Request: fold
Amino acid sequence: MKMHPMLGSSVDPKKISLTIKSIGVWLVPGVLALVTVLGWDVTKVELVDLVNNLAILSASAMTIVGIVRKIYIKIIG
Reply:
C-alpha cells in the first residue's frame, strides 16, 4: 500500500486495512437499511439486482484502472 498508505493495514502495511475490507461487508445491509428508513419498498429481486450492479461497477472500475495503469507503465516506463 505504498501509493495509498491510508488503505494499508496497521498490522501489515502491505495488505489492505480491515476497515476498508469491512466496508464491502456492511455496504449492502447499510444501503438496505437506509432505503427502508426512507420508506422505499425493496423486493428481494431488486436487492439481488443492486448487488449484481454494484459488483459489475466495481469489477469494471478495477478493469479500467488496471488497463490504464498497465498502459501508463508500458509507455512511461
About this structure: Helices lie at 18-37, 44-76. The first helix runs from residue 18 to 37.
